[in-house]
Write a structure and sequence with these properties.
The chain is α/β, with parallel strands linked by helices and 283 residues long. The protein is 28% helix and 11% strand. The protein starts with 5 loop residues before the first strand and ends in a 14-residue tail after the last helix.
C-alpha cells in the first residue's frame, strides 16, 4: 500500500525494519537553526535520516528570493539518493511542530515526482507518547539513485504580481493572524501580507495533540474557503514557503487536490519595496 498524505505512528512502527521504507527527521526552529540537528543527535526514530530545512530542503538565498528558496531539483534528488531513496521507497517525514516542516519535505518529494511520501501524523511527540522506540544511533544508508523529474511546478513571484486581486486566483496565507495583519513580524524586514490574500493559519488544520483533523473536518474547513473554485486556482503562501505546504497537504487530505505553492512567499515578496503591501485583517 502506498501512503501519499499521512501515515499513523502505528503503521510506521510496524515498518521500522522494512527496507522499502525511509524516514526523514525534519525537526526545525525558524529562529534557531541548530535546534533540529541538536534534537536529532539526542534522540530520533530508529533509522531516521536528518533533513535540515535550511540546508537540505532549501537552496542558496540571495536576499531577494526568500528565506527558503527551492534548491536546484537535481541537487535535491542527489540528496535523496544519498539518503537511500529511490522511486520504489515509501518515504515518511516527521517533525515536532504539527507537521509544519515535514510537509515541506512531503511537497518537495512530490515536486520531483515521488508520490509515495507521507507525513507522520502527530510527529515525534505522538511517537513518544505512544512509547515507540527512539535512538541516538545515526544510520548509514546505502546510497542509490533517485531518478525523478520535476512535476509539481511552484508559482513564481511574477505570476503572483500579475494576479493580485484576480477573482480567478485565491492566495491563501498560512501564517498566524498577528503576522498576516502586520501586528508583528519576527522574521522578515517588512510586516503585512500580499494584497488580496486570505488568512488561513496552518494550525487550523490540527486537532488536539498536533494530529491532523479528519478528512471530513478538513473538508468542512476548506470547502467554504475554496468556494467552488478548481483547486488549481488556489495558491498557498506563508513566510518562506514552508508552512504553506501544510495547508496544501490539508487540502489534499480533504480531497481537494491540485492546489499550488508560491515558494518564495512573503519573504520574497517583501524584499522588493516596489511591491505593494497590505496590513490589517482583510485581504
Amino acid at each position: 500500500m502506498k501512503y501519499a498524505t499521512l501515515v499513523s505512528t502505528e503503521t510506521l512502527a510496524a515498518h521500522l525494519d522494512d527496507p522499502s521504507w525511509v524516514v526523514f527527521d525534519c525537526r526545525h526552529d525558524l529562529e534557531h537553526p541548530a535546534f533540529g540537528p541538536r534534537e536529532y543527535a539526542k534522540s530520533h526514530i530508529p533509522g531516521a535520516r536528518f533533513m535540515h530545512v535550511d540546508e537540505d530542503l532549501s537552496g542558496p538565498t540571495t536576499g531577494r528570493n526568500g528565506r527558503h528558496p527551492l534548491p536546484d531539483p537535481r541537487v535535491f534528488m542527489r540528496k535523496l539518493g544519498a539518503a537511500g531513496v529511490d522511486r520504489a521507497k515509501q518515504v515518511v517525514a516527521y517533525d515536532a511542530h504539527g507537521g509544519t516542516f515535514a510537509a515541506r519535505a512531503w511537497w518537495m518529494l512530490r515536486w520531483v515526482g515521488h508520490d509515495a511520501v507521507a507525513v507522520l501524523d502527530g510527529g515525534f511527540g505522538e511517537w513518544l507518547r505512544e512509547d515507540h522506540p527512539e535512538t541516538s544511533e545515526v544510520p548509514r544508508p546505502a546510497p542509490t539513485t533517485f531518478d525523478g523529474a520535476v512535476r509539481a511546478r511552484p508559482v513564481g513571484v511574477d505570476f503572483v504580481a500579475a494576479h493580485l486581486r484576480d477573482p480567478g486566483i485565491l492566495l491563501v496565507d498560512a501564517r498566524g493572524a498577528e503576522r498576516y495583519t502586520g501586528a508583528t513580524e519576527p522574521l522578515d524586514p517588512v510586516a503585512g501580507h500580499i494584497p488580496g490574500s486570505v488568512n488561513v493559519p496552518f494550525k487550523e488544520n490540527l486537532a488536539a495533540g498536533g494530529v491532523f483533523k479528519s478528512a471530513d473536518a478538513l473538508r468542512a474547513l476548506w470547502q467554504p474557503i475554496v468556494a467552488g473554485r478548481d483547486a488549481a486556482s488556489v495558491v498557498h503562501t506563508c513566510g518562506s514557503g514552508v508552512s504553506a505546504c501544510h495547508n496544501l497537504l490539508a487540502m489534499e487530505i480533504a480531497g481537494l487536490a491540485g492546489s499550488r505553492l508560491y515558494a518564495g512567499s512573503w519573504s520574497e515578496w517583501c524584499a522588493d519595496p516596489a511591491r505593494p503591501v497590505a496590513t490589517g485583517p482583510t485581504p
